[in-house]
Structure formats: structure tokens, C-alpha cells
Amino acid sequence: MISRLLIANRGEIALRIIRACNELDIESVVVYSQGDAGAPYLELADEAICIGPAPSAQSYLSIPTIISAAEIANVDAVHPGYGFLAENAHFAEVCRANNIEFVGPDEETIRKVGDKAEAKISAKAAGIPVVEGSDGPVESEAEALEVARKAGYPVLIKAVSGGGGRGMRIAHNDISLQANIQTARAEAEIAFGDPSVYIEKYLEDPRHVEIQILADRKGDCIYLGERDCSVQRRHQKVIEEGPSPAVSSADAAKMGRAAVKLCKSVGYHGAGTVEFLYDGKKFYFMELNARIQVEHPVTELICGVDLIKEQIKIAGGATLSHKQTQVRPKGHAIECRINAEDPDNNFAPSPGTVTKCIVPGGPGVRVDSHVCAGYRIPPNYDSMIGKLLVWADTREEAIVRMRRALDEYVIEGVKTNISLHRRILRNAYFVRGEYTTSFLDEMLSA
Hints:
Blueprint: E1 4-7, H1 11-24, E2 27-32, E3 47-50, H2 63-73, E4 77-79, H3 89-97, E5 101-102, H4 107-114, H5 116-125, H6 141-151, E6 155-163, E7 166-171, H7 174-192, E8 197-201, E9 207-215, E10 221-233, E11 236-242, H8 249-265, E12 270-278, E13 283-289, H9 296-303, H10 307-315, E14 332-339, E15 341-342, E16 348-349, E17 352-353, E18 356-358, E19 365-369, E20 376-377, E21 384-392, H11 395-408, E22 410-412, H12 418-425, H13 428-432, H14 439-445
Parallel strand pairs: 1-2, 1-4, 2-3, 4-5
Antiparallel strand pairs: 6-7, 6-8, 9-10, 9-12, 10-11, 11-14, 12-13, 14-21, 15-16, 17-20, 18-22, 19-21
Helix pairs in contact: 3-4, 6-7, 11-12
């Protein structure tokens, strides 16, 4: 059992984990950088420890510093949240070498699924459909050209250790492949410290659908419905909803069973997300994210399962709280990511002090955010400052409820993307559920 846990993250997800610890009667210790000093959520933890300057490399990404904080605070577990060190196999290894439980899969599994090319091989071995392309990283330009010609253009150049659209480029012919592969490698090296890339066939206008899973150390694994994450800007998710308006219940169940099969085959435990591309008839494995996702509350709302608490309990040795037959998704949930950015200025980040903050409420409305009036948004981190969620019996009711909630949401002092969400929720294609991964970029360019 875990009795004292360190949260190696910041902002909204740190607050979310603090709340889960409080409900589990677990003492929480949160770390923070000098850039986050004075943030209100720090006061809700049992202890807060400063781990260095604002730059992530000197604080939230510094493994020795975080381990030192964990030892000083005398914790028995570390929760990495998402981003930063959440999928860092070395961090998980160092935690366990110091007798500190890592809330997530073991380091071998993280390495296996964190390498997207290796994960693709594992999926293929498990009999799960994958997009045609290279079986691993391409070592040379000549090899990349050979793979691309065999798969057929257009192809996608993807960073092996990628995420968030970084290290990703589309090539429509030999010339654009040669021009983009070096750029993708350089971007991957900067973002992930790994320049490796692989090639796969680019599916034009697919849906991006993901399956939430939970697995314990005994080998039991369940899936908890699907989330549609196709509303994206430059490969970064903007709106998520569940269930998907485009996937039949039969295909969703097939994806769920495939996700469970893959997770069992790699010895996965904890919370994870298996992502697929869906063309309306078939689905193809994309990747397995070995962490909690930003959009996990969508699943919590439709399934009634607290995923963060389940994560912590599994890390403490507990078996799954639910069997597959007990998972019965109900209703419809939508999540809007609220970012401090200016949609009218190429989505430039908008750090600064929030002078006014009115949070929406009422039936079926949930806001996960660490921001309030007087909070200073630092310029050093991702621009997401919160998540607005709604739940209703039907998708139509959820859309209406989200429109109402967005109209109530007021944040002043900085620019936000709330106005963009209002546009999307009134877009006819979105309302009809007729959108793909290219929907938002096309809407913005128009």
C-alpha cells in the first residue's frame, strides 16, 4: 500500500493527483519550480518542495533533483502525471532502484512501447492491424525512399520517440521525403533527444480513436470505451469526446479487445491508452501511451471510474476494481482543452497574470484547472491551463451543454482559445459528427 506519494508534475494534473490522494487518505508531496512558486494548488498538498529554476530541464525534467526531493520527503511512490518524465524509462528505473514505487508500468515495458517502431512490431505480432511502412527506424535516406515507394505516397515521417506532432512530416513524393526527413530528425533530436524516425503510409482524413485500458500486476486487463480525438490542430488534440460519433459499437469493441490483447502481450500494468487510426471501415494501431492522458476525464465521466485513483491503487499492489462486464459506458462526454494562446495571432502563447476568472458550473459540467484570478501563467511550459468537460445523456445534449458552459467561461488578462471552441461547437460538420483529423486545420484555413 502507498501511504505517501510525490507528484513529479505541475499545474492541472498535479492538482488532479492531489485530490485523488486526499480521497485515498494518502499524504501528497508536490514539487514545484521557481516559476510555479506561489501557485494556489501547492497549498492543497501536505508538503511542497521547490526543485529549481523555472526552465524544465533544471526542474521538472531533472531526475536527480526529483529523486532527492523524494528521499527528503520520505515518500514511497512517485506519480509522474503526463508529459515531462511520465514515459521516461530511466526515471522509472531510478525510482525503483531507490525503493520508490513508480506509478506506471515497469521500465522494460516503457522502453518497449515508448519506441513507436518497436510498439508497432509488437502490435503486428499480436495480430493487430498496423499501417504499412518500415518495421523499425530507417537508417538512411535510401532506405526511407525504398519504404516510401513500396507503401505508396503520401507517407508520414514520424519520430520514434515522438508525441504532440513533433518530429512528424508528410511527404508526397521522393523530393519532399528527402527534404523533410532531415527536418523531422532534427526536430525529434531537440524534442526527445532521439533523432530516429520511421516511415508509414499516410492515411488521408482518418479518425483518431483511442481506447483507455487499466491493467493490474496479476495480468488482468480491461478496456473502458473509446475516445475520439480527431479535432486536432497540427497533430495536437483540441477537443476529445466519447463515445466516438463515427465508430460503431461493434468496431469499438473490436478495438477494445485488440488494445487488451496488445497490453497483455507486452506485460503492461497501470493506466494506458492504445491509439488507432480509423478509416470508417478498418482500424490501424498507432501507438500505446504508457501514462495517463490529458483527456482521461472523458472516460471517467462516461464510465464512472476514477482513473487516477485506480492508477495509484494498482501501483500499490491492488487488483482491478472492475471486471470487463462491469464497465458500462453511459451517456456522452466532451472535453475542450483551454489554452493560454491567441487564435488570432497564429496561436502564440499568452503568458501573464489572469485578472478575472469565472468558471462555468451547473449540472454535468466539470472544470479541471489550477488557474484562478490573480494566478500568473509562466512562459516556460505548455500553454494548456485547464480542461472544460460536460456530460449528458446524448451527444446532442452534450453539445448544447458545452456551448452554454463555454459562454459562461470568462478568463481575462491573457488570451485564450475559448472563442475557437465556441466556433467549433457551432460548426455544422462537428455537430453532425462528420469530421476527421484534417477538419480543424481546414476550418482555420478557410
